Amino acid sequence: MQHKLIASALALLAGQGCAADFNVRDYGARGDGSTANTAAIQQAIDAAAKEGGTVVFPAGTYLTGAIFVKSGVTLRLDKGVTLRGSRNIDDYPMMPTRIAGIEMRWPAALVNVYKQSKAAIVGEGTIDGDGKVFWDQYWALRKEYQPRGLRWASDYDARRPRLVQVFDASGVKLGGGLQLRRSGFWTVHVCYSEDVTVDGVSIDNNEEGHGPSTDGIDIDSSRKVLVANADIAVNDDALVLKAGRDADGLRVNRPTEDVVIRDVKVRASKGGIVFGSETSGGFRNIEAYRLSFDEKTPVGILFKSSHTRGGWGENIRLHDITMNGTPVVMRVNMNWNPNYSNTVIPAEVKAVPEHWKVMTTPVPREKGIAHFRDVRVWNVKATGAKSAFEVAAYPEAPLRGFRFENLDIEAKTGGYLRDAEDWRFSGTTLRLPADAPLEVGQASSVTGLPAGSFVVRAPEKNG
Prior knowledge:
By secondary structure, this protein is mainly beta. The protein has eight helices and 33 strands. Strand 8 (94-99) and strand 9 (102-107) form a beta hairpin.
């Protein structure tokens, strides 16, 4: 698969008559781990862009700041080649992008495909963000912000470089055996893009401790995206569908749609396959299958939003998923993490940053509640779970038309289903203790659950 992806990337560019290799050594780059190579690597990329060619590296470790892969260029990192990110944030220029659901200026990623087409980043080499310095800076800022009621601003004010950004681009290929390591923030961010393939990547952000907010692969208001053959260990969500946050996300109003995710092993994360919490633009035509999670992923299938996000989801297909020791099989939380979601500027702050003003723009409740419908989940095998379901939405926006087939779940408790309208189960086995059945809210309509596995109870009031 790795060699096929490299070959397909080269074939893609061959149609433009490109065959030349552009060796970064010829532009002054040195793989000694200490020479600053940003300018030399960029010169090689720019030269390759004029003809359509492949940028190659002799074996070694190349220290660099942000680089920008251009249209028609393949950046090939062979085995034995490492791009290691600078620890100086000034080496990542500020530029317009979207970060965590908000359009704003933000440091460039280490490797960028920014408003380009038919570009590729492939090979069995390594892209290493060396991100611990940025993790430490984030924790320091959060320690200062949290007592002031500014938890929500921490991720936006502690500016950290992502590892790979694909922004407003098309026809991009990433993979072929790439090793992605120690990202300062999100690892692979695909935003406002289409026809993007991420096939054959290994992600590990847990070296030197657990990097905060180091998502694995984020697909953000993009379409026609394939993610395949990935191995992921991160300290936040692993496979993430996003579509904007609150008033700004509703303004942009771009869905994430026509996405396929398959053949992924998640070794560590906070959520395996995740929708949100940035849901404003909505999700449509998403399929994910042949995924596996274990005990280091607290939640296997996760939908999360807030009463200010808005958005929707429909035609979502999740199937052939195995969970071994994953504590919660499926969670839906439409009032996720209020400390992060509820944005209030403290009265003592006089000079208010522009992005704070954007983030605190009010969203009427009728526009802020996300609506999910037509979700189908089948062929799920889960053992050693603590809870099978933890599902809650809002009475005025129930979760409609979910279908479950061929579930086999072993758990210590059934958990709960609330605000579930027209949920149907078939071929489902719930292996639960007799005194810990699945609790179904009185207002919910659920059919097909195994006899004796559930009890109907009055639901708690949601926020």
